[in-house]
Amino acid sequence: MKSIFPKEIIEHTAEAHFARFNKKIKSIYLLVIILIVSILVTLPVVNVEITRQSRGAVRSLYENNTVVSSLYGQVTENRLFENKKVNIGDTLLVLDALKLDNELKTLSKNLVLNQKYQNDLSILLNHISGDLQTLLYKNELAEYEQKIIELNTEIQHKEKDYTINKELFKKEVIAQIDFEKIEYAFNQALQKKELYKKQSILKWQTRLKDLEYKSMDVESRIQKSEKEKQNYVIIAPVRGWITHFSGVQAGNFIAPGQSIAQISPASELIVECYVSPSDIGYIRNDMSVNFQFDAFNYNQWGLGKGKVVGISPDIFQVENSSFFKVRCSLDQKHLTLKNGYVGNLKKGMSLTARFQVTNRTLFQLLYDKVDDWLNPRLKG
Question: Can you give the pTM of this predicted structure?
Answer without folding.
Answer: 0.61
